[in-house]
Design brief:
Layout: E1 12-17, H1 25-31, E2 35-38, H2 54-57, E3 62-67, H3 72-76, E4 90-94, H4 99-108, E5 112-115, H5 121-138, H6 150-162, E6 167-172, E7 177-180, H7 182-190, E8 194-196, E9 202-204, H8 207-221, E10 233-237, E11 243-251, E12 259-265, H9 275-282, H10 286-296, H11 301-308, H12 312-326, H13 331-339
Parallel strand pairs: 1-2, 1-3, 3-4, 4-5
Antiparallel strand pairs: 6-7, 6-12, 8-9, 10-11, 11-12
């Protein structure tokens, strides 16, 4: 998205929302270099947080909410305007943290939810940078006044990618690696299925698989109409007899350039996504969550229907429902949404 650059400094301006935070903005600014914490202009009345005004929001880059309890009544007490989550990135700090309310806040529109007991300055700064980066990616065209600090954003993005339990690599249309997370590096260094060549291309060890992989990257990066949903999944045979599953999805277009994201899993990453997490995050039924999990694992719709002993018509109907609940319309975009969403970080 296009960023404004009319600020006279590089500080990120964070509006602190919640009565308990108003007296500590100076101390917060002193602890966080490069971040200016702003108080609300209206003062609390009768112990309640003041309503957030348009004048408060205008100069801010992000809203930092302090919720003293878990429940929508605590959020309503902050007096936030309707649609605020689509106007500014939001980081919520929960004093009474619980997983259910944290997930509800993420679905409402908060980019990050942090327990107050686990929020030292370094953690809070990472959450603020990650929230801004994610908001800019998901809300193209929204107003955000942050001056680009590419080094900080890239470091935060890479840190976030390194928390994923599977490999992810970004390449251009010619399969040249732009960057990858630690799990992908480990897979490539093992050279059991894929590796990075001297000219920085992602390659398969087997020559035939290598040719097929490069052709797929080229087709997917241009979002070719003849790429069927099942073709986005690519399996590579490893030297030890195991299978490395690759999911290849398109990223970037127009001025951003064509390219792909290659998700890699040899059995310990997106194979272990919890069905309960999928149900909780996306509001799926048990059957829908099982179908989605198998799809993320690389199975085709025909394979899924056979394994679950349901008709292909039933599987298609369940997939249609999953599309509606996840706001997607193709299997590739659905898989990409799941693998870059909160469900991959939830275990159990």
């Amino acid at each position: 998205m296009q960023l404004k650059t009319d600020k006279d400094d590089n500080n990120i301006r964070v509006l602190c929302v919640g009565g308990m935070m108003q007296g500590g903005v100076k101390a917060l600014s002193a602890e966080h270099a490069g971040i200016l914490f702003l108080p609300q202009t209206r003062q609390p009345q009768d112990g309640r947080a003041p309503e957030v005004s348009a004048a408060d929001i205008a100069p801010s880059d992000l809203l930092l909410l302090f919720l003293a309890g878990s429940g929508w009544d605590w959020l309503e007490r902050l007096g936030l305007p309707d649609g605020i989550a689509s106007q500014r990135p939001i980081v919520a700090i929960l004093d009474g943290y619980n997983d259910d309310f944290a997930l509800a806040l993420l679905k409402w529109g908060a980019e990050e939810v942090v327990p107050s007991v686990d929020c030292p300055p370094a953690r809070l700064k990472r959450s603020i940078l990650a929230a801004i980066t994610r908001f800019q990616r998901n809300h193209a065209g929204a107003t955000c006044n942050v001056k680009s600090d590419h080094a900080s954003y890239e470091q935060t993005a890479l840190h976030t990618l390194d928390t994923l339990p599977f490999g992810i690599m970004f390449t251009d249309v010619e399969s040249r690696v732009l960057f990858m997370n630690s799990a992908a590096k480990k897979i490539c260094l093992s050279k059991s299925g894929v590796y990075v060549s001297d000219d920085k291309r992602c390659c398969a060890i087997d020559q035939n698989e290598n040719i097929a992989l490069h052709r797929l990257v080229h087709r997917v990066s241009h979002e070719a109409e003849n790429v069927a949903d099942e073709d986005y999944t690519f399996r590579i045979t490893c030297d030890d007899g195991g299978v490395l599953t690759l999911l290849v999805v398109s990223v970037g277009k127009e001025s951003a350039g064509h390219g792909v994201a290659i998700f890699m899993d040899s059995g310990g990453g997106f194979f272990n996504i919890s069905k309960d997490a999928l149900k909780s995050v996306y509001g799926l039924t048990q059957s829908e969550a099982e179908l989605l999990l198998r799809m993320v694992q690389g199975e085709t719709l025909a394979e899924i229907s056979a394994a679950r002993k349901v008709t292909l018509h039933t599987a298609r109907s369940q997939l249609k429902s999953v599309f509606a609940k996840t706001d997607t319309n193709r299997q590739a975009s659905l898989i990409k949404k799941v693998l870059t969403g909160p469900a991959v970080l939830m275990r159990g």
